[in-house]
Amino acid sequence: MDGDVEKQIKEMIVERCFLDVPPDRIADDDDLMEAVGLDSVQILEVVVGLEENFGITFEDTDFDIENFRNVGAIAQYVRSKANS
Question: What's the rounded mean pLDDT across residues 19-48?
Answer without folding.
Answer: 95
